[in-house]
Specification:
heterodimer, A: alpha/beta, Beta Polymerase, domain 2, two-stranded parallel ribbon, 3 helices, 7 strands, 19% helix, B: mainly alpha, Cytochrome-c3 Hydrogenase, chain B, three-stranded antiparallel β-sheet, 6 strands, globular
Chain lengths: 176, 401
């Protein structure tokens, strides 16, 4: 059986009824949104299912959408099935007040540093991670710098303001 | 391996464990990273890597720059093969804006990318030689790398951090001097490379040092997210140029060399063969270089010719819009990956329609596979650990982003 977007989606929805909150195919890559409750079971299923065999965790990255109420933070998993040469993406979102996500280190040791990096950048707490410390920034840093509220450049700069170019910026996002 | 079970019981310890700081600045680590080693005599009991010494917050920086200004950031990831990073980024943006390149531009990119792969592998393999005590090959191969850098200089004006090409194609066509240098390189490089190869490949000392040093099994390497030559040395034939061809790689005939043991010797041999295959690709691309334009027709992203800017209204407007980052970009998210010098270099770009990326995540291959290092060197001698590290092609710029 050739794996494609619709068969994979059907297989997951069959195994986890109602767990896929939404799905889309931006630029052809199947993107599914699920919840942090089922994410590890879902990842284990796609990893171990003989028809899917998404054996490779390509990357894992945090997201911050300040304007999404109650779903401000997110984690995006890029998965790859070598056997089927098939890639897809799974997302979860959760509130910024309780940024808790189960760790994927139980499935892939590769997730160890990836999760440490996203903790370092976004302050996402990966439950069950064996060693959740900062990895790239200094240990005594007290902010999570990739969150959108932290500006990079001088906040008084106006020459890069989107309003002066006839375009509205992202809601709730501050441009420098 | 007998070393795997060496520390299964503490009874094997000869004496007290000593703590040894390998790095952050140690000449043998070829970069700024630290390993706190627990040593039993000369054997490594455990290792704790610390990274981030040259962290420059690339992902944050990228959120504050127009798309064309992100390219210089990618230079500084794996700086041994910057053109691959640059072009991987350009292809990501081209995928987002739906831009198809003329064949000539794609072939030109392939030539540049394979040249940089050769440069990358030459440095890595020459350094493996140095760490086993053979400096001569290193000095030979750096002369060859110099010739590759001179070619980059012809194409883009710079050598190490190249910022080569543009979104939508190449910045300029190959110059006559480039053609001359490339022809000369293709003619004389293979013989010099084989001379270097003959110094090491069947050298008893080199083989004794490398075979069995820092091995990893294919299954384990996959779990650790290995890609590139390190994964192929462990026996998994995963190469993005073949699995998901980009930039017309499917037009070329080449093989993917693989190893069996995943040790330092296999990593060395895989890279050596990849250099030969890269040469083969360059030959095919150069001999069949199609006529046509060296860039796509995307005036919204590609800077117009400078004389036109001074004389034509349209060109002036586009020039202004490109430089000021005032181009509408589609909303969406895209993942694109290329076969970098040391593995799968991926770009996950989320655009909200603004002039800068909303989020840009780099999948940096050596950041992901370097976490296997403590496991690979456990129970080995210190000198083998140094060798294992250099054979993994860990580049500090990419590791720390």
């Amino acid at each position: 059986m050739q794996l494609d977007n619709s068969t994979l989606l059907a297989a997951i929805e069959n195994r986890f009824p109602g767990a896929i909150l939404s799905h889309s195919e931006p630029y052809g890559m199947l993107t599914m949104e699920t919840t942090s409750e089922v994410i590890i079971d879902l990842l284990r299923f796609v990893k171990e299912d003989p028809a899917i065999q998404a054996n490779f965790l390509t990357s894992l990255c945090g997201m911050h959408y300040p304007e999404q109420d109650g779903k401000e933070m997110g984690v995006v998993y890029h998965l790859h099935s070598f056997r089927n040469n098939f890639r897809f993406r799974v997302k979860i979102f959760f509130p910024i007040d309780a940024p808790h996500v189960p760790s994927a280190t139980t499935l892939w040791p590769a997730a160890n540093w990836m999760e440490r990096q996203e903790y370092d950048f976004f302050g996402i707490i990966f439950e069950g991670h064996p060693d959740l410390r900062r990895i790239l920034n200094v240990d005594d840093m007290d902010v999570f710098p990739m969150r959108k509220e932290y500006r990079l450049e001088d906040g008084t700069r106006t020459d890069k303001d989107d309003r002066f170019f006839g375009r509205q910026g992202h809601e709730g996002r501050t441009f420098d | 391996m007998q070393v795997q079970s060496y520390f299964s019981s503490l009874d094997n310890l000869d004496g007290e464990l000593a703590t040894l700081n390998l790095g952050p600045t140690h000449p043998a680590t070829h970069g700024i990273f630290q390993n706190v080693l627990k040593m039993d005599g000369e054997r490594i009991h455990s290792a704790e890597p610390t990274i981030g010494y040259i962290h420059r917050a690339f992902e944050k920086l990228a959120e504050h720059r127009p798309y064309n200004q992100v390219t210089p950031i990618t230079d500084r990831l794996n700086y041994c093969s910057s053109p691959i990073n640059n072009m991987g980024w350009h292809m990501t943006v081209e995928k987002l804006i739906g831009c198809e390149l003329p064949k000539r531009a794609q072939y030109m990119r392939v030539i540049i990318m394979e040249l940089s792969r050769i440069a990358d592998h030459l440095v890595c393999n020459a350094v493996i030689g140095v760490d086993t005590g053979a400096l001569t090959g290193f000095t030979y191969m750096f002369q060859e790398r110099e010739r590759i850098y001179e070619m980059f200089e012809e194409v883009c004006g710079s050598r190490l951090t190249t910022n080569i090409g543009r979104i939508g194609g190449m910045e300029r066509d190959f110059t006559p001097a480039f053609h001359a240098k490339l022809k000369d390189f293709l003619k004389s490089f293979p013989a010099r490379f084989e001379e270097f190869n003959s110094l090491l490949e069947r050298n008893r000392i080199f083989m004794d040092r490398c075979i069995g040093a820092g091995p990893i099994a294919g299954e384990r390497a996959l779990e650790y997210g290995f890609t590139g030559p390190n994964l192929r040395a462990a026996g998994v034939d995963y190469d993005i140029r073949v699995m998901t061809p980009y930039s017309s790689y499917d037009d070329f005939d080449f093989i993917i060399p693989i190893g069996t043991q995943g040790d330092t010797y296999d990593r060395f041999m895989v890279r050596q063969e990849e250099i030969r295959q890269s040469l083969k690709i360059i030959h095919q691309a150069y001999d069949n270089l199609p006529a046509g334009n060296y860039h796509a027709d995307v005036p919204d992203f590609y800077l117009p010719e400078k004389p036109d800017v001074y004389t034509k209204m349209e060109a002036l407007i586009y020039h202004f819009k490109v430089v000021m980052g005032e181009t509408p970009v589609p909303k969406g998210e895209v993942y694109h990956c290329v076969e970098g010098g040391n593995g799968e270099l991926g770009f996950y770009l989320v655009s909200d329609g603004g002039r800068q990326p909303f989020r840009l995540h780099f999948r940096r291959p050596c950041f992901i596979y370097y976490q296997a290092y403590p496991e690979m060197i456990k129970g080995s001698m210190l000198s083998d650990a140094i060798l294992t590290m250099s054979s993994m092609n860990v580049i500090a710029g990419e590791l720390d982003a």
